């Protein structure tokens, strides 16, 4: 290639022998066992067994470095052009599938819980099983990518993700949905470990850090795309009936979420294998052919163009461990066992001399990062609800509205919002023409409560007793009576949607000339309930707890399989999706900063500082009691924390040699998913006990991770090994 190269190196032919143990020297490179002079390689069928002599580790390191440098020069010759853009788009869309997989299920959960009868336990299982699938898929596909190729693994895995993700949109049972989302997660598990390995092997050292950071921006694009899909589809009242089967908005949303996977699957058919991978596997002609193709596309050259770098003498490396022979069943079984052995061997080599420190540090760092990021992000809505609940319980309606107790007990055209109504303050009131939005009524007795021409939205009655409850000419939405005792009640000309009486006692009541959709009485004890001239769609009623009740001239649609759905909160899907969109957009400054700084400041220093700043932002979140400021701080956390993930993706691609790069990425991806599973489940435990506990744990973990990152090596100025 270059005139000042050592001429003797062109006479070197390396051959890896599968019958010997695979060894890695102190620099993380394969310790080749034999070397022969090129001019002696004149035997029949290139049989070189008679000419093998041992070489030293230092000689192997020298050869490895020269091969890496010459491959680097070959990549530089291909330049940057249309192929580079197409490669970035393909890898980016594949990465978007990972984001979509995580957000898709969390977005559809509130809408799908009715169709799939999802209990809180099942919702938690589905949320965790996705990460379990990604864990298994990340390690499996990442390891296989070092054996069968990057492109093949990407095509198989992302197609698997699309097929099972699409199938989950049409199931009617929660267990089936859970299994299909698990398999979908196994498929998309390859997106993180394999994509970054694949992409990095097409990049030169000069632009590698910057372009891998640009690739990481597509994770944010996946968040934005999923949020936009959710805003556009889920809140819509869509019901397409095919016989007894209904296709509604959440099913359409799940179908839309498979677009990145299927798009990536189709594009992968047009992508070449990594030339670096082919070189290491000894397929020099294919590697050279791909480099020529990239050169022609980027330089707009014709088919007859000669590749300007004479690298034939360089590509005489054969690390192919596959035994040659016929394709009989025994050979295929043997080959499969060899593949499994090599996967395990490569994993063990991640802890060999020269690699074990960086592997151990990255394991701890990525576990803590994943624990913190997914724990905070996925449970933040619940954390906000706790803040809202605390604020609600400490905000009395009479203080907000400034009203005083009425001597007659009549309150007209009053508006109550986001406050707690004290039963003892109002003393047998009558509310006429009033509205109640997100109002909390707890612990008290109403000797009489009259509601006439009122609107109730997201109102909770908890541990309240009613001796005479009258609701007339009113509209109720998402109203809950929890652990209530109701005696002598009348609902007259009431329209309600999602009215639930949970663990309550109802004695002597009437529902007259009313229309109700989703009335849940399943966990309550009912006695002497009379329903007359009313329509109740989807009523859930436990026959064993229903005594002396009658229905006259009414239409009742019973639920055959009652689902104890939680309607304690009014689910504002649009607001949730908009907040998710804001969180995604908050990543943009961090992504831009990464692209600008990655090639000018050592990677590990960026990662260390960013993790420490992330820990400080989370610690500040613990001391803020209001929802608005908490949302702002979470946006700040996302904007800072995304830089650490971008740098981590670059480091993972750089600190390992080609022969174990995808294995390392897959292994660390598995640790990533384990951290997510542990984080999500521990947050679920602590969030109800004391929300401050998980916040402080996360702040501490991020601080420790920032210090550990300083132990990583500096590799930004080196060619890929």
Automatic annotation (TrEMBL):
Regions crossing the membrane: 85-109, 121-141, 153-173, 179-199, 211-234, 250-271, 355-380, 576-598, 605-624, 630-652, 664-687, 693-712
Domain Major facilitator superfamily (MFS) profile, residue spans: 85-717
Keywords, in A-Z order: Membrane, Transmembrane, Transmembrane helix, Transport
A Pfam family annotated for this UniProt entry: MFS_1
Keyword Transmembrane helix: yes
GO CC, alphabetical: membrane
UniProt name for this protein: Synaptic vesicle glycoprotein 2A
Example of a GO MF term: transmembrane transporter activity
Membrane protein topology class: Multi-pass membrane protein
Family note: Belongs to the major facilitator superfamily.
Lineage start: Eukaryota, Metazoa, Porifera, Hexactinellida, Hexasterophora
InterPro entries: MFS, MFS_dom, MFS_sugar_transport-like, MFS_trans_sf, Sugar_transporter_CS
SUPFAM superfamilies for the chain: MFS general substrate transporter, Pentapeptide repeat-like
Location of this chain's protein in the cell: Membrane
Signal peptide interval: none
């Amino acid at each position: 290639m270059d005139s000042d190269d050592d001429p003797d190196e062109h006479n070197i032919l390396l051959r890896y022998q599968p019958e010997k143990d695979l060894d890695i020297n102190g620099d993380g490179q394969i310790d080749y066992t034999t070397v022969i002079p090129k001019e002696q390689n004149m035997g029949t069928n290139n049989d070189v067994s008679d000419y093998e002599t041992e070489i030293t580790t230092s000689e192997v390191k020298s050869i490895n470095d020269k091969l890496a440098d010459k491959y680097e020069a070959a990549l530089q010759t291909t330049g940057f052009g249309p192929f580079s853009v197409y490669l970035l788009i393909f890898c980016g869309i594949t990465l978007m599938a990972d984001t979509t997989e995580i957000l898709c299920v969390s977005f559809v959960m509130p809408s799908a819980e009715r169709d799939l009868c999802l209990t809180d336990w099942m919702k938690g299982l589905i949320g965790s099983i996705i990460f379990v699938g990604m864990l298994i898929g990340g390690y499996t596909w990442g390891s296989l990518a070092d054996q069968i190729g990057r492109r093949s693994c990407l095509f198989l895995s992302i197609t698997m993700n699309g097929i099972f993700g699409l199938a989950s949109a049409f199931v009617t049972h929660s267990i089936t949905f859970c299994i299909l989302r698990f398999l979908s997660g196994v498929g998309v598990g390859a997106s993180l470990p394999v994509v970054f390995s694949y992409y990095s092997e097409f990049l030169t050292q000069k632009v590698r850090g910057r372009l891998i950071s640009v690739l990481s921006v597509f994770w944010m694009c996946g968040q934005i795309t999923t949020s936009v899909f959710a805003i556009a589809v889920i809140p819509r009242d869509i019901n397409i009936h095919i016989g007894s089967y209904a296709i509604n908005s959440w099913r359409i949303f799940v179908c839309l979420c498979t677009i990145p996977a299927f798009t990536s699957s189709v594009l992968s058919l047009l992508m070449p294998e990594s030339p670096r991978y082919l070189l290491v596997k000894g397929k020099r002609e294919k590697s050279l052919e791909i480099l020529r193709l990239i050169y022609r596309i980027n330089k707009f050259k014709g088919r007859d163009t000669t590749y300007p770098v004479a690298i034939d003498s360089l590509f005489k490396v054969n690390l192919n461990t596959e035994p040659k022979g016929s394709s009989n069943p025994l050979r295929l079984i043997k080959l499969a066992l060899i593949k499994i052995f090599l996967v395990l061997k490569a994993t063990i080599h991640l802890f060999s001399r020269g690699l074990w420190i960086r592997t151990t540090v990255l394991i701890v760092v990525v576990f803590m990062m994943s624990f913190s990021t997914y724990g905070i992000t996925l449970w933040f809505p619940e954390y906000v609800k706790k803040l809202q609940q605390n604020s609600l319980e400490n905000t009395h309606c009479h203080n907000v509205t400034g009203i005083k107790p009425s001597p007659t007990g009549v309150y007209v055209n009053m508006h109550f919002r986001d406050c707690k109504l004290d039963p003892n303050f109002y003393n047998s009131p009558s509310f006429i023409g009033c509205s109640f939005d997100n109002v909390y009524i707890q612990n008290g007795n109403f000797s009489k409560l009259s509601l006439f021409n009122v609107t109730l939205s997201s109102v909770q009655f908890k541990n309240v007793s009613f001796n005479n409850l009258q609701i007339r000419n009113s509209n109720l939405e998402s109203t809950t009576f929890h652990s209530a005792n109701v005696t002598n009640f009348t609902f007259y000309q009431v329209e309600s949607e999602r009215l639930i009486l949970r663990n309550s006692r109802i004695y002597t009541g009437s529902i007259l000339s009313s229309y109700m959709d989703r009335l849940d009485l399943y966990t309550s004890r009912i006695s002497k309930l009379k329903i007359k001239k009313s329509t109740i769609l989807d009523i859930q009623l436990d026959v064993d707890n229903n005594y002396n009740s009658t229905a006259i001239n009414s239409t009742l649609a019973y639920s055959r399989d009652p689902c104890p759905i939680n309607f304690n909160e009014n689910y504002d899907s649009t607001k949730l999706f908009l907040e998710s969109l804001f969180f995604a957009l908050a990543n943009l400054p961090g992504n831009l900063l990464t692209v600008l700084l990655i090639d000018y400041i050592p990677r590990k220093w960026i990662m260390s500082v960013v993790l420490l700043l992330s820990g400080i932002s989370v610690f500040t979140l613990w001391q803020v009691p209001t929802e608005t400021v908490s949302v702002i701080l979470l946006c700040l956390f996302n904007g800072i924390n995304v830089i650490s993930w971008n740098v981590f993706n670059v480091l993972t691609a750089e600190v390992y040699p080609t022969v174990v790069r995808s294995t390392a990425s897959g292994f660390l991806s598995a640790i990533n998913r384990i951290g997510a599973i542990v984080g999500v489940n521990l947050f679920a435990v602590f969030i109800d006990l004391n929300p401050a506990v998980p916040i402080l744990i996360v702040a501490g973990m991020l601080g420790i991770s920032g210090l550990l990152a300083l132990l990583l090596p500096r590799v930004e100025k080196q060619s890929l090994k």
